[in-house]
Amino acid sequence: QLQLVESGGGLVQPGGSLRLSCAASGFTLNYYAIGWFRQAPGKEREGVSCISRSGGSTNYADSVKGRFTISRDNAKNTVYLQMNNLKPEDTAVYYCAAYWTTVQNMCVFRNKRYDYWGQGTQVTVSS
Q: Are 125 and 87 in contact (CB under 8 A)?
């Protein structure tokens, strides 16, 4: 069974940091581009960041540029999202997702492109 499992969410004060992990089971992430998405209450799901198959290309939403860093460790079949200088507006459920691709150095934010989704992890930024 193909699964993505997120972890690392929690409650953090403004200005704090969290590192989210996305672990795959049942398939190898080497052939997949990976994205992180988030959905806040009452809002649509939005793309946060993505990383290409090779790890050589990344994209970020303007709202997180300079604060979030996406990375992948194919040997561990895991993708990470390091989140620094967190703000209350970063509060949301964060999801990782994957799509199979032959393209090594590109990734996209389009939700419909992604084939597999995790169950999400809650991130709450509050004092």
A: yes
Nearest to 69 by CA among 17, 116, 11, 118: 17
Q: Which residues pair with 122 in a beta bridge?
A: 93
Residues near 56 by Cβ (< 8 Å), separated by ≥ 6?
104, 105
Short-list 59, 9, 17, 10, CA closest to 34: 59
Q: By C-alpha distance, which of 119, 118, 84, 121 is closest to 7?
A: 121
pLDDT in tens, the chain (127 residues): 789 999 999 999 999 999 999 999 988 999 999 999 999 999 999 999 999 999 999 999 999 999 999 999 999 999 999 999 999 999 999 999 999 999 999 999 888 899 999 999 999 999 9
